[in-house]
Structures are given as structure tokens and as C-alpha cells.
Design brief:
Number of domains: 1
Largest sheet: 5 strands, parallel
Radius of gyration: 16 Å
Distance between the termini: 52 Å
Shape: globular
Order of helices and strands: EHEHEHEHEHH
Number of strands: 5
Structural class: alpha/beta
Helix content: 40-55%
CATH superfamily: HUPs
Strand order of the largest sheet: 3-2-1-4-5
CATH class: Alpha Beta
CATH topology: Rossmann fold
Number of helices: 6
CATH architecture: 3-Layer(aba) Sandwich
């Protein structure tokens, strides 16, 4: 049976750190389903469709990835898709508490679904979607932190925002 992981996130927008986790995750898992979670508590800059389009473009040529969206409990989706694990990236100690709580809750909900953490590459340790959006909003140089298509989409999005 192939080893399947779900890599959940908002991906608003996808960063080079996300792509790094996906590529490295494929060295552990046979297939990864990238699941865009629609979090109503977050005010997303990009629509789910825009995020799917950017991810698809960024992952063009990378085999054994699939993209999906889901609005329910992640462990329920993992069971539905017959995944063995949830893949998560961690940048720094500041990520640990939240990720640890989520992993414990998911384990409480379904003991058969494991959570696997990958530490981000040192190049991406300071990179987050929120920080990138803030820098881009004010014209900061985000070159090299996000794929080119994302950089272009951010530029387009913020050219229509009234600062």
C-alpha cells in the first residue's frame, strides 16, 4: 500500500518554504495530497481557486502530488483518502506549541493518523505567508521567497489595493 500524506495549509500564498516541504516530503511518502483548508477565521488575500492555480503552477512537473480542498476535520479527510499521515512544516520554536497542540488533538480524534513534522530549510526559516504578504503590500522585495508566479500575483493583487 502506498504511503500517503496530507499536507494541509492555507497557502495564502504558497511560498518557497511550502514547496521545499513538499519536495522533501516526497522523499518519505509515495504521494502527498496538498489540502487547502478554508479557515473562516482567517481573512484570505487569495481565493481558494487562485491558491489552487498558483500551487498547480508552482508544482508543475513534480510527480505524485494532488491538490484538494476540505472544510471539515482534517483527520476525517485523511481517513476518507486513506492517508497514513499529516505532514507539517515547522520553522522555529514559535511554531512548536500550536503544531504540538494540533497534532495531539488529531491523535485524540484518530490514533491511526500520524503527524510527521519536517523542519524547514534554513533558507526559509523566517518566511511565512503573512510576512510575505505584508512586505509585498508595501512594495518590499520578496524575490526568491516565493515562486515567480506568486510574486506576479501578489504584485497584481496589491496594485488594486488602496493603501
Amino acid at each position: 500500500m502506498p504511503k500517503l500524506a496530507i499536507y494541509p495549509g492555507s497557502f495564502d500564498p504558497v511560498t518557497n518554504g511550502h514547496v521545499d516541504i513538499i519536495v522533501r516530503g516526497l522523499k518519505i511518502f509515495d504521494q502527498i495530497i496538498i489540502c487547502i483548508l478554508n479557515n473562516p477565521a482567517k481573512n484570505a488575500l487569495f481565493t481558494v481557486d487562485e491558491r489552487m492555480e498558483m500551487l498547480s503552477s508552482c508544482l508543475n512537473g513534480i510527480k505524485n502530488v494532488e491538490m484538494a480542498t476540505y472544510d471539515g476535520l482534517l483527520v476525517d479527510y485523511a481517513v476518507q483518502r486513506k492517508a497514513q499521515a499529516i505532514l507539517r512544516g515547522m520553522r522555529a520554536v514559535s511554531d512548536f506549541e500550536y503544531e504540538f497542540q494540533m497534532a495531539l488533538m488529531n491523535r485524540r480524534l484518530n490514533r491511526d493518523i500520524q503527524t510527521v513534522f519536517l523542519m524547514t530549510g534554513l533558507r526559509w526559516i523566517f518566511t511565512s505567508s503573512s510576512i510575505i504578504k505584508e512586505a509585498a503590500r508595501f512594495g518590499g522585495n520578496i524575490n526568491g521567497m516565493v515562486p515567480k508566479i506568486v510574486q506576479q500575483k501578489l504584485k497584481e493583487k496589491f496594485s488594486t489595493v488602496n493603501l
